[in-house]
Amino acid sequence: MRTLLLTLALAVLAPSVLIAPPLHAQQQRSALSEKEIDEVRDARLVPSDCIVLFVKFLDARTKAIQDLYAKPRRPGREQDTHDLLVQFTSIADELADNLDDYGPRHADLRKGLPKVLDAVERWSSALKSPPDEETYSVARKIALESIRDLRESSTELASEQAVWFKTHTPAKQKEGQNGPIDIPR
After folding, report:
1. Number of domains in the chain
2. Within a domain: residue 2?
3. CB of 99 closer than 8 Å to CB of 109
4. Is residue 173 included in any domain, yes or no?
5. How many helices and strands, by DSSP H and E, does the chain display?
6. Nearest Cα to 150, choosing from 105, 118, 111?
7. pLDDT digits (tens, 9 = 90+) for 59-118
8. 135-151 burial, b for 16+ CB within 10 Å, e for fewer?
9. Domain that holds residue 78
């Protein structure tokens, strides 16, 4: 009788356990909005344009952080700062991953890399400007490390690109003639 009741209880409870939605901490949210994701998808064909888009997204996050502290204080500002710093780090890491993918393929990033290198100092100073706060201190430290890593990889890639394209001059294409498409993963 006990076995029957136990089996019946498991039969009733098991489906609800199996179809339970994931917990909040298990859900993956992108740091990019749907519109930004679409922009990246559209720009993937031209790697330099894709890099410039990531710079634009990181500029938007730093501007949002600066705006939080330029206006009168409002409740939740520290948590909003934390969330924006986490988004910033995620986007910076995605940019670094893209640079790592594009580099060995010798994609022409000569137009986009200077924009990254110009922006890293701006981002660094913007992220250091909010006052110290325990709520976001770790997130800020990680974001600043991402900026440092991005600066190092961009500087290295820019010098590699300069050497590569000095010895391998890209062929000029006639207008309206498309070359092969190399889409990174």
Report:
1. 1
2. no
3. yes
4. no
5. 6, 0
6. 118
7. 999 999 999 999 888 899 999 999 999 999 999 999 999 999 988 888 888 899 999 999
8. ebeebbebbbebbeebb
9. 31-167
